[in-house]
Amino acid sequence: MKYRELGGTGEMVPEIGLGTWKYSGGPEPLRKGIELGANLIDTAEMYRTEDAVGVAISGRRDKVFLATKVLSSHLRRDAVLKAADDSLRLLDDDVIDLYQIHSPNPGVPIAETMGAMEELVDRGIVRYIGVSNFSVAQMREAQQAMTKYPIVSNQVLYNLKRRQIERDLIPDCVENNITVIAYTPLADGSLAGKSRFRPDKGGEVLERVAKEVNKTRAQVALNWCLSRPNVIVIPKTNSVERTIENCEASGWYLTPAQVAALDEAYPL
Ligand SMILES: NC(=O)c1ccc[n+]([C@@H]2O[C@H](COP(=O)([O-])OP(=O)(O)OC[C@H]3O[C@@H](n4cnc5c(N)ncnc54)[C@H](OP(=O)(O)O)[C@@H]3O)[C@@H](O)[C@H]2O)c1
After folding, report:
1. Which residue range is the domain that position 13 belongs to?
2. Which residues are CB-neighbours of 101 under 8 A, at least 6 positions away?
3. Do the domain assignments include residue 82?
4. In a domain, 45, yes or no
5. Is the pLDDT of residue 194 over 80?
6. How many domains, the chain?
7. What is the CATH number of the domain that holds 125?
8. Measuring from each residue's beta carbon to the nearest atom of ligand 1, which residues come in under 6 Å?
9. Whole-prediction pTM
10. Which of 21, 158, 250 is the pocket-test mutation for ligand 1 (most atoms within 8 Å of CB)?
11. Are strands 40-42 and 231-233 parallel, antiparallel or unpaired?
């Protein structure tokens, strides 16, 4: 497993983390991921998987970088503080490594939310502050509302089929030292051929490149995301076997020609 720096923190996080939306695999897939170095686990109060994550990381907490999220309906100061407490109780832990705002809420002043996030860092309950589903303008506003700490990450939709963030968000994150945590990197399994794989133009190229590098389509789709600067991915799987497969998407690189062929096959 290769690692990338989280924002400008000096903290190294794996290129492949473990997503847990709709996760129902029990402890073993997450434990296998941790063993293989995919030690960033992403959950959220919304997912109702924090308790399952707590069970999986029990006895291994020192090896794990734990990321969770506060719901956008909990962005008033007191609600943020309570949500963090509730998450920690479910996770059976006392510190969140990365606390992310799940999505923006225009109904709550951003300064109030970011102030509460900073308060959590001051109290030692949260180590780093991140956001999710924020546009470039929203990231800027959130950063300007903070007085002490940086936004270290933005968790956003990114995969071969959904490349919109290449237009402005990735360049902005590179410029400002913010990690892009790519969610749904397998397009919900469709790039991996989970459901019947119907090769379209993109699929044919994906399959050809996978054969060339002797990897699976899932591994190529994940590795393609990693060809972008500042990006890490958090695929979700309930299976130990597919956890191993996904972890093996790190540690090697597609050639520039293969990346270019995939870019062309799945145009922006
Ligand atoms: N911040 C947000 O708003 C937001 C939104 C969506 C997701 N997320 C985060 O991102 C994570 C990943 O996104 P996602 O769950 O939406 O989609 P995803 O990771 O793109 O796809 C998950 C699907 O792919 C299948 N899969 C995984 N690895 C596979 C492989 N090697 N071969 C074949 N199929 C494979 C899984 O099935 P099996 O489980 O059966 O293997 C599952 O059905 C989430 O779990 C969550 O942590 C965040």
Report:
1. 3-190+224-251
2. 69, 70, 72, 75, 113, 117, 130, 131, 132, 134, 142
3. yes
4. yes
5. no
6. 1
7. 3.20.20.100
8. 19-21, 42, 102, 132-133, 155, 183-189, 192, 194, 218, 234-239, 242, 245-246
9. 0.98
10. 21
11. unpaired
